[in-house]
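Contributing new complexes? Match this layout with S-adenosylmethionine.
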Amino acid sequence: MREKGRDLNGCVYLVGAGPGDPGLLTVKAVRLLESADVVVYDRLISPEIIRLIPDATTRVFVGKKSGRHLVSQENINTLLVRLAATNHKVVRLKGGDPFLFGRGSEEARYLVRFGVPFEVVPGITSASACASYAGIPLTHRGIARGVQFIAGHCDADAPLDLDWCSLANAEMTLAVYMGLANVDEIASQLIKAGRSEKTPVAVIENGTTGSQRQFLTSLGELPKTVHRAELQSPVMFVIGQVASLAEELKGGQSICVEPPPEAQQLRV
Ligand SMILES: C[S@@+](CC[C@H](N)C(=O)[O-])C[C@H]1O[C@@H](n2cnc3c(N)ncnc32)[C@H](O)[C@@H]1O
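Output block (do not edit by hand):
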């Protein structure tokens, strides 16, 4: 494959699909899905969104599950360049927002290197959507001054290397992506760094989809909650006082995603 300089007529759109509910796709994303020649998509793209792709469009699944890569990142990068080089309009469909823990920027850098025209179409990131659907504002005047997006998992299962002290501010909401495997360490390190073990935590599994489950617990009880409920990826942790607003704000919403009975018992 030749690097930059070669003329290409194809184009790659790095498109965010949001966390699952097709109603959260942007108008731009829907238009691109309808007009693409090829859609290259990840594991977390919901079946409802896949159904929006016209039958005649080529679909390429390159899904990755933690620890099990069906197609390597290098091969995904190469595939995108090859498809563009053969004049295809390619939609690279990624969960949530492509530039938030989605390796979208790695793919973009590769496209730049090979002179492939591309565009990034932002999507609603799972922290924002899962929290909203669970009735939780990520910030709230007088309760949370800001929010920090954190990856609770490192590449190739390397040990978590987070600056725990910088996460200890009780006025900051923490939205933890990919935190399931390291939940014990996340809870204990945050408490050690100074977060109260009574800090409310919302745990949201399959957020925004018909199978959403949500639990309200505390930082001290978080590992127990996760293990007892046998949660499966994808799961989002929203840690901070804002989580305590869930009951009040969810009650007024018409989104119909109810927590299972055991979650009620775990409420703090
Ligand atoms: C590799 S990251 C990709 C994040 C994505 N780019 C975004 O902006 O949401 C995958 C993680 O996002 C979170 N996630 C994605 N979809 C989710 C959903 N529907 N419900 C809960 N968490 C979700 C989970 O923490 C999951 O392990």
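Reviewers usually confirm one structural detail per submission. For this one: The first helix runs from residue 27 to 35.
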